[in-house]
Amino acid sequence: MRGPETYEDGRPSWVDLATSDLEAAQQFYSDLFGWDYEPVPGGGYYYATSGGHVVAGVALGQNPDFPPMWTTYLAATSAKEAAEKVKAAGGSVIVEPMTVGPAGTMAYCADPQGAAFGLWQGDEHLGAARINEPNTFTWAELYAPDLDATAAFYNTTFGLSATTPDFGPDMPPYAVLTVGDWGCAGTMELPYEGAPPHWHVYFGTEDTDSAAEKAAASGGTVVAGPVDTPVGRMASIQDPQGALFSVINLNDWPE
């Protein structure tokens, strides 16, 4: 589906990959999702496109202390004001708001439990142009040890509300962060003991099993699944450079 004309504050609007091998990563995701790439003026950063629409970013990581990873960016009308709210609510600002040419303004933050995320104030580049369809950003999940504290922070900072869907007694505790009536991200407990709090990115696929097989054939590792969930069939994958993400074939695709 087409990305919204305006991303509400707190709604995930963009995802990008910082990798240790740009050429190899681009090839992996091209094989998996059919992505093409457009260089962004200024050098080093590429827009990944699906069907001619900008859907994600890919760049060579600039900090050797950070492993390859996907970052989720939350929309902000003012990145500066949002960064101040992050600090006031007990979070930290790792990279202060900075202008990225005519595209917009970004910042890099962490919530009080340590999960890192970006802020994106879009100007010429509002965010993903297509979402919630195969080969595009479809969902984000936040893994944290304290779901109540998580809900409180993102409510105070961005005005997000937390609702608890009924997935049945066999599913772990789960909450959906919402903007108005729109569920924009999920929160759940850490997947295993010792796991750090973190945001996790999902991309849509028409066939989860085929995507998992294709990822493995291209040098990736399937770390979980494929498995059926209440919302669709998913698999978690580590790309050849080590970045984690998931693919999902939703039971009901948004229109």
Rg of Cα set: 17 Å
Main beta sheet, described? Answer: 8 strands, mixed
CATH level-two architecture of the largest domain:
Roll
Task: Provide the domain count.
Answer: 2
Distance between the termini: 6 Å
- Enumerate the spans where pLDDT stays under 50 for 5 or more consecutive residues: none
Q: What is the typical, i.e. mean, pLDDT?
A: 93
- CATH homologous group name of the largest domain: 2,3-Dihydroxybiphenyl 1,2-Dioxygenase, domain 1
**Strand order within the widest sheet?**
2-3-4-1-5-8-7-6
Q: Structural class of the helices, strands and pairings? A: alpha+beta
CATH class type of the largest domain: Alpha Beta
Number of helices: 4
- Shape label: globular
The CATH topology of the largest domain corresponds to: 2,3-Dihydroxybiphenyl 1,2-Dioxygenase, domain 1
Can you describe this structure?
By secondary structure, the chain is an alpha+beta fold. The chain folds into two domains: about 10-120, 2,3-Dihydroxybiphenyl 1,2-Dioxygenase, domain 1 (Roll), CATH 3.10.180.10; about 135-250, 2,3-Dihydroxybiphenyl 1,2-Dioxygenase, domain 1 (Roll). Helix content is about 15%, strand content about 45%. It is built from four helices and 16 strands. Strands 2-3-4-1-5-8-7-6 form an eight-stranded mixed beta sheet, with helices on one face. An eight-stranded mixed beta sheet has the order 10-11-12-9-13-16-15-14, covered by helices on one side. A hairpin with a 3-residue loop joins strand 6 and strand 7 (about 105-110). Helix 2 (about 80-90) packs across helix 3. It is globular and about 45 Å long. The protein starts with 11 loop residues before the first strand and ends in a 5-residue tail after the last strand. The mean pLDDT is about 95.
